[in-house]
Amino acid sequence: MTPFTKIDGSDPSALAKMEGSWTVINTGGNKVEGMTPPAVIVFDTRASSVSGFDGCNDFRGSYVFEQGRLKAKVQSTRRACTTDQARTVSARINDLLAQGAEVVDTAFMNANVLMLKNADGDVRMGPTDVLKKQ
Fold first, then answer.
1. pLDDT tens per residue, range 2-35
2. Which residues contact 55 (CB under 8 A, 6 or more apart)?
3. Is the peptide bond preceding residue 38 cis, with omega within 30 degrees of 0?
4. DSSP string spanning 54-108?
5. CB-based burial of residue 131 (10 Å sphere; 0-12 exposed, 13-18 middle, 19+ buried)?
6. How many domains would you assign to the chain?
7. Euclidean distance between CA atoms 133 and 79, whole angstroms
8. Which one of 1, 30, 94, 96 has the fewest beta carbons within 10 angstroms of its own beta carbon?
9. Boundaries of domain holding 127
10. How far apart are alpha carbons 100 and 11 in whole angstroms?
């Protein structure tokens, strides 16, 4: 069994791995730490909806898979970012959702990581409920 599952919208069991709340832990190879509140993306796979907080603004909308890539149309609040890290994470999340991203689920050492990536960069996320306990 491979530790990587590419989620392209065609396999319901793979799609189920996206379900729930994911907290951003890394972007562009840089660890994301100390963001309060943290950036979180929530997927509701039954409703094909996405919502969350990108580090600066709350957002919500819907997503589809086109040619195996997740694309989302979201509306968000218009608050200014308070830190450079928040600005970077916000820009990356918004780019990935708008431009389209490959979705990859990785499981290793009893941990799950969900990654959204495209040619411009990536975000890696861990399950919010697990990260809150640490």
1. 678 999 999 999 999 999 999 999 999 999 999 9
2. 24, 35, 38, 39, 81, 85, 86, 87, 88, 89, 90, 93
3. no
4. -SS-EEEEEEEEETTEEEEEEEE--PPPSSHHHHHHHHHHHHHHHH-BEEEEEEE
5. middle
6. 1
7. 29
8. 1
9. 4-133
10. 18
Identity of the amino acid at 50 = V
Vertex 38: Cα angle to 81 and 109 (nearest 5): 140
Give the number of residues written for the chain: 134
Write the single-letter amino acid at 130. V
User: CA 16, 17, 23 angle in degrees (round to 5)?
Assistant: 125
Amino acid 2: pLDDT? 60
> Cα torsion for 119, 98, 25, 17, to the nearest 10°?
-100
